[in-house]
Design brief:
The protein contains 13 helices and 39 strands. The chain has 862 residues and is α+β, with helices and mostly antiparallel strands. The chain has a 39-stranded mixed β-sheet that branches.
Length: 862
């Protein structure tokens, strides 16, 4: 017996060692085969981190594990990950591995796979990654290296997404657990499957037919592998609380077609089971809801599905004598009667018809009736609908409780619409029947997820094919209140056609508008201690609204604005201001210009401002541009007016990008006192003129411009406390300054140091001119203000003042004139003497000639 036990132990040990060793013996061979198949057969980037072989855990099979397996597409799908699988395990038949000719796969298991199956509008699919067939023998060999001999497969904690843009169909299964058992080596066998999905979402045409629904399914399938036909056995499909059953088959006779003949139903199910599919109702207290009445659904799908056709289908839904109420709430939704049919008779999608001939329900005792018919949804949609009744929203919340939300008010509707989209396209509004009215009263909407409460005490809309007329709108949004009337035009085109312009004209008035609250996201507990910056307000596209605006008080950023009045136009992603008048910062501002978000990441503002009698201190506190480019305003009290052309880019907080500012204008300092400004103080100290530390300016006009982040001031003249100045220069947002001042300062105002410097300058002037003129009552000083506003650097250059320079010049001129006068007088005397002598000689000659003639005449007479 002892020998027997020893023999068994030895055999067991040998088997154990063999079991542990076999994977290592064949590992290199299998890895080479796996990589060879992958590399030769797919057009994709395939990678895995670890490759493990085991025999013990999977005995009598050999297990292959690929950890962190990823498959990434190329070309059109280069940014899409087809599969990302935490662990893929294949169980192979051990004898097939030992023989080494063909490896039989008996089981497949996927742990936490994330799979994205995607189809482009062109019909190209991202899973079509197999390389084209080749006549090369190695490829043929590789294809037959692995053989599927499945007995079972499983998916655990998977996320599967199917996104088909060619059909506008979307399906996603989250936290999917699925398993199947059957003998795939046989041509005909039964496959038993179990599935559970935490969240199943199905959308078609953008409409969510299932949204986060929980699914449990036990579905046996009769598998005919030769015919590729799969027939449903006795099954159970549970969607939330609704239990369905399906009968029929699905077949794939070729690579392009899917043939189906299916029937499903949930006849005479309870209404509550159907309500469980509605996310807003299927909440934590769904079990407490009382719902009576019957719900029925049945359908047939039959035909071929491929790129060109869809199966015919007919879906019926009915609710009879329905009632819904929560025990803790006083009201109920009563007398629910609905019949609906969705059908397609021939597999042409455009022939689909949605028909709800009538529905009726009562909110408490208030009835609501309606109908809906939709035809030709693809080529030329036809709609015939009507809705009539009163809806008490407060009572609605007593029927369907809403978490973290408060809604109340009464909506009254009586609207009808019937017609085709093509009538709208042609502008034949008279053929499209749209009429009726909707009225709201005492509407209130607030809650945890609402940025700010909305209140509409009254509003009325009247519908016609051409426009919607809005009248008697009174609303409050957060702290802001509005009263409005007007009209919206071209709304049918805007709804039914792409890129159509929605037009409107409105008159809006308000007592108070808080723009900050309307533009800034809701402040949470985590952020309410911090000041929330403004965010970019993106102007909507495809609208053209003209608005006349009047607001008694308006809050924007740090600005308190009163008596806002003017016109606004919203067009082409731009808001245009037209004669917008504002009372703010102690004066009035008139604006004409625009705010544009054609590029939302780079908003632009371009405005002409007319500012009248603005308080300098308030302007400094309100405008960051003034703080950065005119810091002297902090130390200035008074008023100014200006005409300013301004344009700039804005950042994500609606603040100007200072390097992009371009502006020019004419400023008029009506009255101002500058006191405590460091550059002025330091200049006064350098001159020893304490009177200049405090400057008073009246009626000063100067031109300026802003370019590349610098304020450039044109030359201007001022006179302060007997000191005349000429000022010009610039300063930047970096607080640097470069100003040149020419001052004529009374000598009596200067300190000893400045006087000594002036005397030295006067002596140099006398030496240069050769004069001996004494210093006058004023001194000319050139002052350069450099450095920064906080650390100014003052450079002074002294010269004679206007009076002294005038005296020196006068003395020089007088000396030159005296010298010139003496020379001119001597020369003039010489010329006079010469002329005098010539005149005497001439006269003498003339007299002699006369006398000689006279004497000659007398001689003849005698």
């Amino acid at each position: 017996m002892k020998k027997v036990f020893i023999t068994i132990a030895i055999v067991f040990a040998v088997l154990l060692v063999t079991a542990a060793a076999v994977p290592y013996l064949f590992k290199d061979q299998l890895v080479a085969k796996v990589k060879s198949v992958i590399n030769e057969q797919v057009n994709a980037k395939v990678d895995f981190k670890e490759f493990d072989l085991t025999l013990i855990r999977s005995f009598p099979k050999m297990g292959i594990r690929l950890n962190d397996l990823s498959v990434v597409g190329i070309d059109s799908f280069a940014n899409d990950t087809l599969a990302n699988i935490k662990q893929l395990q294949l169980d192979l038949d051990l004898m097939s591995v030992i023989k080494g000719e063909t490896y039989e796969i008996n089981a497949v298991s996927l742990q936490e796979p994330t799979i994205l199956a995607k189809v482009l509008k062109s019909g190209k699919a991202n899973w079509d990654i197999m390389k084209p067939d080749s006549t090369a023998r190695p490829s043929d060999t590789a294809i037959t290296t692995f053989k599927a001999a499945l007995e079972k497969y499983a998916i655990e904690k998977g996320k599967i997404t199917y996104d088909d843009a060619s059909l506008n169909f979307f399906l996603q299964a989250e936290n999917l657990n699925h398993s199947g058992k059957g003998n795939f080596t046989q041509d005909i066998f039964t496959l038993n499957t179990l599935s559970d999905i935490s969240k199943l979402t199905v959308k078609y045409g953008g409409i969510p037919y299932l949204n986060g629904v929980e699914l449990d399914a036990e579905l046996p399938l009769e598998m005919d592998m030769k015919q590729m036909k799969f027939t449903f056995g006795e099954n159970k499909i549970k969607l939330n609380e609704l239990v369905l059953s399906a009968m029929g088959y699905l077949a794939m006779p070729n690579q392009t077609d899917m043939v189906m003949d299916l029937k499903f139903d949930a006849q005479q199910s309870d209404l509550k089971n159907f309500l469980s599919l509605i996310p807003a109702i299927y909440t934590a207290n769904f079990k407490d809801m009382q719902a009576t009445g019957k719900f029925g659904i049945d359908g047939v799908v039959k035909g071929t599905y491929n790129e060109k056709t869809i199966p015919t289908f007919n879906l019926n839904l009915a609710i009879v004598d329905g009632k819904i109420q929560y025990p803790s709430l006083p009201s109920a939704l009563n007398n629910i009667q609905v019949k609906a049919n969705i059908s397609n008779p021939d597999g042409i999608l455009d022939h689909t018809v949605v028909n709800i001939p009538a529905f009726h329900l009562e909110f408490g005792k208030a009835p609501l009736d309606g109908r809906l018919l939709v035809k030709n949804p693809i080529t030329d949609p036809f709609v015939d609908m009507a809705l009539k009744g009163n809806l008490d929203l407060k009572q609605l919340t007593t029927i369907f409780p809403l978490q973290d939300m408060n809604i109340s008010g009464v909506l009254m509707a009586d609207v009808q619409a019937a017609g085709r989209k093509s009538w709208i396209d042609k502008g034949a509004y008279q053929d499209f029947k749209a009429s009726g009215q909707m009225q709201a009263s005492n509407f209130v909407y607030a809650g945890k997820n609402v940025p700010m409460p909305v209140s509409v005490p009254a509003a009325k809309m009247i519908f016609s094919p051409k426009n919607i007329t809005l009248s008697n709108l009174v609303a409050k949004l957060g702290k802001s209140d509005f009263a409005a009337n007007g009209s919206i035009n071209n709304y049918l085109n805007y709804v039914f056609k792409k890129n159509q312009l929605l037009e409107g004209n409105f008159n809006i008035s308000s007592n108070y508008i808080d723009v900050n609250e309307l533009m800034v996201p809701k402040i949470t507990e985590a952020t309410k201690k911090e000041e929330e910056p403004l965010t970019v307000f993106e102007v909507p596209a495809n609208i053209n609204f003209n608005m006349a605006l009047k607001a008694n008080q308006l809050k924007y950023d740090k600005y308190d604005i009163k008596n806002a009045k003017g016109a606004l136009q919203v067009k082409d992603r731009t808001v245009y201001f037209k004669n917008l008048g504002l009372a703010m910062v102690g004066g009035t501002i008139n604006m004409n210009g625009s705010y544009a978000t054609i590029n939302p990441k780079k908003p632009k503002v371009d405005v002409d401002f007319g500012m009248d009698k603005i308080d300098i201190q308030q302007a400094f506190n309100a405008f960051n541009t003034v703080k950065l480019l005119a810091p002297i305003a902090q130390f200035t009290k008074g008023t100014f007016s200006t005409n300013l052309k301004f344009n700039a880019d804005l950042d994500e907080h609606m603040m100007p990008v200072y390097s992009s500012i371009n502006a020019e204008g004419l400023a008029n300092i009506i009255q101002a006192i500058v006191d405590g400004f460091e550059p002025v103080t330091k200049l006064a100290n350098a001159l020893g003129a304490t009177e200049l530390k405090k400057l008073e300016v009246n009626d000063l006009k100067t031109k300026f411009r802003i370019d590349n982040g610098r304020l450039i001031v044109a030359p201007f003249n001022i006179k302060v406390k007997g000191v005349s100045m000429n000022v010009q220069g610039s300063n930047g947002i970096d607080q640097s300054m470069d100003y040149a001042l020419v001052l004529n300062v009374p000598r009596a105002m200067l300190g000893n140091k400045a006087n000594d410097a002036a005397n030295t300058a006067m002596a140099a002037l006398n030496s240069k001119l050769g004069t001996n003129v004494s210093m006058g009552e004023t001194i000319k000083i050139n002052a350069d203000l450099l450095g920064t506003f906080l650390k100014p650097n003052i450079k002074l250059k002294y010269a004679a003042g206007e009076e002294t320079a005038g005296n020196a010049t006068k003395a020089v001129v007088n000396q030159v004139v005296a010298e010139k006068k003496a020379k001119l007088e001597a020369k003039a005397k010489e010329q006079v003497d010469t002329l005098k002598k010539k005149a005497v000689d001439k006269v003498t000659t003339e007299i002699g000639n006369k006398l000689k003639g006279l004497f000659n005449k007398k001689k003849k007479d005698t």
